[in-house]
Amino acid sequence: MREVRAAFRRFWPLTRGDRRWLVVIVACVVVAALAETASILLFAELTDHALKAGSLSAFWGPAGGWLAVAVLGAVVGYLGNSLATWTAERFVLRLRAGVFRHLQTLPPHFFQRHRRGDLVERMTGDVEAIEQMVVSGVVGTVSAAFSAVFYAAAALWLRWDLALATFVLAPLFLLAARRFAGRIKKASTDERVADGAITSVVEEALGNVVLTQAYNRRGAEEARLDREARAWMKASVRGARLSELYEQFVEVVETLCVLAVIGLGVWEISADRMTLGQLLAFAAFIGYLYPPVRSLGQLGLTLTAATAGAQRLGEILDARPAVTDPAVPVTPGPVRGWVAFHDVTFRYPEADRPSLSDLAFTARPGELVVVTGPSGAGKSTLAKLLTRFYDPTAGMICLDGVPLRDLRLDFLREQVTLLPQETLILHGTIRENIACGRPGATRDEIEAAARAAAAHDFVAALPAGYDTLIAPGTAALSGGQLKRLTIARAMLRASPVLILDEPTAGLDAIAARQVVQPLRRLVSGRTTLMITHDLTLAPDADRILVVDGGRLVESGTHAELVARGGTYARLAVTNRPLPALPG
Fold first, then answer.
1. Residues 6+ apart with CB under 8 A from 350
2. Is the CB of residue 428 less than 8 Å from the CB of residue 485?
3. How many CB atoms lie within 10 A of CB 534?
4. What pTM, to 2 d.p., does this model score?
5. What is the spatial distance between Cα 280 and Cα 180, in angstroms, rounded to a whole number?
6. Is the distance from CB of 83 to CB of 99 less than 8 angstroms?
7. Inter-residue contact 81 to 26 (CB < 8 Å)
8. H or E element that contains 502
């Protein structure tokens, strides 16, 4: 129960704003329970005065009252249940949005440690499990508690001695629920984990379908899915068996109670101490009493199972962002684009050694700086630090003389445009993909950016033009065309600092040649760090930095570094010029 209380305390604040509706729902529950109690009492009166006596005149009064109470209970029940559903879905919406908002602040290594499919499952199934605990659980508890109190009070009012005799077995429901709770929680946890694994396998297989087909891995992927699905089935069946065993045990106990009531009632009727109507009403109250008591026990099992989802969501919410906004941010004037690394050292979380060590350089406004070096030298780490996915372990990075730590994250990322190595495409139209570089851009601005990126002609040739729907991995456009769309997106953003991370990666020689001129237009007038193995644009660079083993080993122009005959000269020899475009 300690875990249930901790989870409840953590997520209950999310009901703020809806608690007045919870009060209304509780009021509806109370009225519905009172209406049900009144109906049973009216049924007893109807039995004793109308049915037993065969009097039609004695029928109309109780019948009219019963109908009125039934209508009231139906209206109140409908309103309460509808409002409860609406409130529960608002809670789910709020919780899912909060978890998603937090996820987007977490550093890249968090997503490397967690499979995407499992995170999706936490955002869906686990969020709904929390709702079952916090909102539906509260409503269910109040409903069961009031119903049990009203039915028990009515039974005591009719015959307190018989009521006390039948109440003896009620604690068995709670004891049974407590005994089953731990085993059901274990099964629920296993089922949640298996759900996430299944989603991950499907997501990975569909995302790598070309690899699966090309390497004849269909059988291996099916075996992976089968393995995870069997784990899910095992946990699901185990949980269902435990729940069903609890249900059947409770059914037997309820039957014993009802039989005891009827037996005692027959004895009381034979001694003229009880009427038939009173017996039927008393039996109804006892019969109606045990379901709420059973619901309280079942609710305990539901809450216990929900703690598995709470723990999995807690892993996300407890993960801390690698960077945060400063308490008192600096608000500089218009950014010119001075970028300075001052003896920067950085080590990734859980890494054995630093990726960068004592790195120092300055990039002036409008300067093109090419950063190159062997694979794994730490070049791409520069992009993560300058966009502040991480802060340096030691040293400082400044923009226009202001440490990045002193700038608001949203302000910094408006000033620094990253064109990542992966060609990132959103599900949407071509226009929407370009416009995400600057939300609110006009149609003319979007098309101007596409022209500058040498993308307008092939986009205009499409049947739907800029309204053509595309998605990651789309076959409608080539790799080079998609790359030019991302260049148009970066051009539209028009920030003073630009980071190009392997801008020609994954392109063949012809496609790479097609993006060179758009890249030249993109970097013009901006402070640009181009991280690349492709040295096609290196002769255009104002300065070239060679990074090896996380350290800056060479710096200078293309001609200066080639003349030295060092690491850069060896890299330049291996970079053959791209062939000219046909025609």
1. 109
2. no
3. 18
4. 0.71
5. 33
6. no
7. no
8. none
